[in-house]
Amino acid sequence: MNGSVLPAVQIAVALALVAWMITGFTRLPGRWLRWKMFCRATFTIVSLTGTKDGHSEPVNVYDHLSPGSFILGPPQLQAILDYLTGSGRYDRIDGHGRILSARGEQPMEVRSSRVVL
């Protein structure tokens, strides 16, 4: 009997520890990046299509960030959109995506080169 109680207690303690760790990472609303380290960051995951003279092509906004940068919030995205349309590379840019922040996950759109939350 003592031989089977010890492994059962170890398994119960391990499961309790895993459950505690999972709840520690999920205190904030939303589904993504709930760990407190990410509370102040705002990430944008977006799929964009640029149009120039009636021809469309995918736009990768991360090509226009400085090397090593990966955090792209709505103001930075709008600045890149303004640059791409102002430089004449595209007439308009449209798309959709998600914003991930401390407030959780929110849908977003890009319509006529403007970020719409």
Number of DSSP strand runs: 5
Shape: rod-shaped
Q: Which percent range describes the beta-strand content? A: 25-35%
Cα separation of the termini: 61 Å
Helix content: 25-40%
Verbal overview:
The protein has 117 residues and is α+β, with helices and mostly antiparallel strands. The protein has helices at residues 2-24, 74-86; strands spanning 43-52, 55-59, 92-101, 104-111, 114-116. Strands 2-1-3-4-5 form a 5-stranded antiparallel beta sheet. β4 and β5 form a beta hairpin. It is rod-shaped and about 80 Å long. The mean pLDDT is 83.
Task: Write the SSE topology.
Blueprint lengths: L1 H23 L18 E10 L2 E5 L14 H13 L5 E10 L2 E8 L2 E3 L1
Antiparallel strand pairs: 1-2, 1-3, 3-4, 4-5
List keywords for this structure.
single chain; 117 residues; alpha+beta; 5-stranded antiparallel sheet; 2 helices
